[in-house]
Every structure is written in C-alpha cells, then in structure tokens.
Design brief:
With 454 residues, the chain is an alpha/beta fold. The protein has 3 domains: 2-42 and 57-108 and 245-306, 3-Layer(bba) Sandwich (FAD/NAD(P)-binding domain), CATH 3.50.50.60; 126-242, FAD/NAD(P)-binding domain (3-Layer(bba) Sandwich); 333-447, Rubrerythrin, domain 2. 21% of the residues lie in helices and 26% in strands. The chain has helices at residues 10-22, 44-48, 54-57, 62-67, 132-145, 157-167, 189-201, 292-306, 383-389, 396-403, and strands spanning 2-6, 27-31, 70-73, 78-82, 87-90, 97-98, 101-104, 108-110, 126-127, 149-153, 172-176, 205-207, 212-218, 221-227, 232-234, 237-240, 244-246, 262-263, 275-277, 282-283, 320-322, 330-334, 348-355, 360-367, 370-377, 407-410, 416-418, 445-447. The strands form 8 sheets. The protein has a 5-stranded parallel β-sheet. Strands 9-16-10-11-12 form a 5-stranded parallel β-sheet. Helix 1 runs parallel beside helix 8 (292-306). The longest helix is centred in the middle third of the chain and has 15 residues, at 292-306.
Length: 454
C-alpha cells in the first residue's frame, strides 16, 4: 500500500512517523512545497533575532527519513488532487503521483484582518510569519531598511513570542491587541494583567482594546497604524499575527466538503473515500484547533485510520498552551474560566492564589473532583501534574501538594487558613499574625498534608 502525505509540518511528519511505527513495510511518501525537511515553527521568531540558524530549527535531518523509510520530496508544490483517479499533480510536472491513501496536512496561513493597506503592503513593510522564508524576509528587511520601531498586531501566543524577538533586535516594539486583555483564549483577566506587567517590564509596549483600521502609508512606506477609536501608533514595520486560516485550496473543487477547514469524521476521514486530513487544515465539530497538541493527537488517529485499524476515534483536543518567551513560565490547560462559559453551581470548585509582588498565579478548576483546567504563571513545578491529570478525577490533598497550596489548621480551635482563597501564603503572613477566631499565634497552625483526615 502506498500512502501519500501532502505537507511536512508537525501534523504531516508525525502522521508518517506513527504510520511507520504501526507498519514497517507500507510505502510512505511526503510532498512539501518547502525546501527544508521538518523544522519547528515555534522557534521561527528566534531566526529573526539570529539567536538560532536554519540548521538549529531543523528537527529531522536526512538520516531520520532514511532510517524510517520515508521518501520526502522537497520543493514540490501539489497543485491538484484527483480523487477519482486517486492521484495528485505536482506543479510543473505532467506525470501524476498515484496513492492508495492520501493524507492532507497542508496546515494553515496567518489570517490577515480587513485592515486598509494590509494586503497591498505585504512584503513592503507589512509581514506575517509562518515559515522560514517569512522569517528571513523580516530579518533582512529590518537590516536593509534600518528599522527602528515595529508594531505587532495580535497579542496571542505567536504575537507575544514574535514581539520578544523583535525587541531583541533592538527595535522599539508595541503589541496591538483587539481584545481588552492579552491571551483572552488562554487566560482569565487576573492572570492576563500579570502577564501584561511582565511583558512591559521587558520594554515591550502593550495597546489593548485596539482594533486596527488602517496601515498608515506615506510615500510608499509604512509609518504606523490607525486604531478605530482614533489612536495612531508610529511604526516603520507592521507584523500581523492575528490567528490562522486553514489551507483548503487543494480540495475546493474536488467534491470534498469544507467549511472553514476540511470537514472530517471521528476517524479523520474526509467526504471522499481514502482521503484524510490532519492538523491545522481540518475542521471537526465546528472547531479549528491550530495548536501542536491537536496535531500530535490527530496524527496517532489518522495513522490507525489509513492502515484500516480504526481503533482510535477523535473526540477533540484539550487546549494546552505554553508561552515560550524567555523568563516567563506560563501554562494554560483546558477550561480555565468556567464562569465566563456560564458553568456555575454545584460541583464546581476553583483553587486559586495570586502573588502580585512575585508575579505568580495558580488557578485550578475542578468539577466533581475532575480536573477541568488550570492556569500556572510563574510556576513550573505543577505543570507536569496538571498535564497528566486533566479530565481525570483527582484527590484534592494530592492536588494541593502538587500545586504547593495548602490548608493550615489551627490546633486550638480548628480554624482553617486556605491559601487558595487568600493572596498571602501562610509562610508569608507577618510573624505576629494571630488566628482570627481564637487569637492563637502562627505556631499553633499545622499544614494539612496528604493522608490527613481534617
């Protein structure tokens, strides 16, 4: 059997790897329009600041493909799929490539909002970042034009990571975010405020609640942006990181159902026999995922599906996000703000502690003792625990030990000091602090630990 994969990003390459792990003999061929083997897109901003080279980004080199018997065709742009004849056509070539099973892993492109002059000025002061060529183009433009200040439209994960590297190029950098807070899809308002403070400490300016209306162009050069509320921000370069658009162009005229993305079922099958989709290009239950954990999870399912095993079914991916900015530990997992989603009432429990001085924030969301989500900011030790236990029943005492937030119990009267409802940790209370009920001093309190009954 011959399996053809279109796309060599994280979804395509892990699909190939999982197929090979399940079947040592099946023929696997990958076609990618890029001239590079699989590389990590997460670190693309560091190519701009020259902290990393292209070779540093490449994860799987030639010997890995050879070892796994995966034939990869670089710099080959697929411009047509022919489901009827089970083949694909490569741009500039006449002979079709036949397949038994086809996996579409074409990924996505950066979305460009309807901003005046945005599309017209692409490559001429306005840029998006998706691949190595984009990063090199941005780097070279900064050098050749002597850029001194830049505006990053989009205060999401990618926008903030990009802003840090642009700042490290010694540019005055401003992040312009449409929503009233940073990372609205990953953080609640309390943690978002801490993140804003932390980023501004790095010398990056933040403009919130700012819907960009126009790229200001004077004499053919970018000079800044105009916000819908009348604000104007100066900048010689505009970088747009405002979400993604699934790459569905290959299937538009081939009878494969699409909405925003390529529609798939639980086995990641499209509406055409023997054609599957995986990664950023697919849509499942009206949702586009666009995150690496989803690509990796989907790649395991599609590997089973194309080999006819159909043992695994896709039910969606729990969002897991980690900010890569140097000096910031930030993890967001699952449902972190149930009240915002209208989930309130019996069974819901939130364990939370905020240390404004140390810029540390921990929030755990439970429903009937099931770990539904978490935010960890300035905290790395608990990340492994919450990652491994999300959507699982947990013991509250064990959980408190993992996140290092405890109940302290007064030995004299039984009064409880709960670190998840008080900003100060018990150890940080003044030495002369007294029990609010009986007046006992701090030494009268003991920490509730795993195994305690009270």
């Amino acid at each position: 059997m011959k399996i053809v994969i279109i796309g060599n990003g994280v979804a395509g390459i892990f699909s190939a790897q999982n197929i090979r792990n399940l079947d040592k003999d099946v023929q696997i061929e990958i076609f990618t329009s890029e001239p590079y083997p699989y590389y990590t897109r997460v670190k693309l901003p560091e190519l701009i600041s020259e902290k990393l080279s292209i070779d540093d980004l490449i994860v799987f080199k030639k010997d890995w493909y050879e070892k796994n018997k995966i034939i990869t065709h670089l710099d080959k742009n697929v411009n047509k799929i022919d489901p009827k004849n089970k083949s694909i056509i490569i741009e500039g070539e006449n002979d079709p490539i036949f397949y038994d099973k086809l996996i579409i892993a074409t990924g996505s492109m950066p979305a460009i909002p309807p901003i005046k002059n945005a599309k017209e000025m692409q490559g001429k002061g306005v840029f998006t970042l998706r691949n190595i060529e984009n990063a090199l183009e941005i780097r070279d433009y900064i050098k050749k034009k002597g850029i001194k200040n830049a505006l990053v439209i989009g205060g999401g994960l990618l926008g903030l990571e990009l802003a840090k590297q642009i700042k490290d190029c010694n540019l005055e950098t401003t992040v312009v975010e449409f929503f009233p807070r940073l990372l609205p899809r990953q953080l609640d308002s309390s943690c978002s405020g801490l993140l804003k403070d932390k980023i501004e400490e790095m010398g990056i300016k933040i403009e919130l609640d700012a819907a960009t209306e126009e790229i200001i162009v004077i004499d053919g050069f970018v000079k800044g942006i105009k916000i819908k509320d009348g604000r104007e921000l100066q900048g010689e370069m505009v970088l747009i990181q405002a979400g993604i658009t699934p790459n569905v162009h290959l299937v538009k005229d081939e009878g494969i159902d699409i909405n925003r993305g390529i529609l798939v079922n639980h086995f990641l099958e499209t509406t055409k026999k023997d054609i599957y989709a995986v990664g950023d290009c697919l849509e499942f239950k009206n949702q586009i995922w666009g995150i690496i954990p989803a690509c990796i999870e989907q790649s395991k399912i599609v590997a089973n599906s194309v080999l006819g095993k159909n043992r695994l079914k896709y039910e969606g991916t729990i969002p897991k996000n980690t900010l890569k900015i140097i000096g910031i530990d930030l993890t967001s997992i699952g449902l972190f703000d149930p009240e915002d989603k209208g989930f309130v009432g019996v069974g819901w429990q939130i364990l939370k502690n905020i240390d404004s001085k140390k810029k540390c924030y921990k929030k755990i969301v439970l429903k009937d003792n099931i770990l539904k989500g978490a935010i960890l900011f300035g905290e790395n030790e608990a990340k492994s625990y919450v990652n491994n236990h999300v959507e699982m029943e947990v013991d509250e005492l064990e959980l408190r030990k993992a996140i290092n937030l405890y109940k302290w119990i007064c030995g004299a009267c039984g009064t409880i000091y709960d670190e998840t409802v008080n900003e100060l940790l018990f150890k940080n209370l003044p030495e002369d602090w007294k029990c609010p009920n009986c007046g006992s001093n701090k030494e009268a309190f003991r920490k509730q630990i795993v195994g305690s009954k009270n």
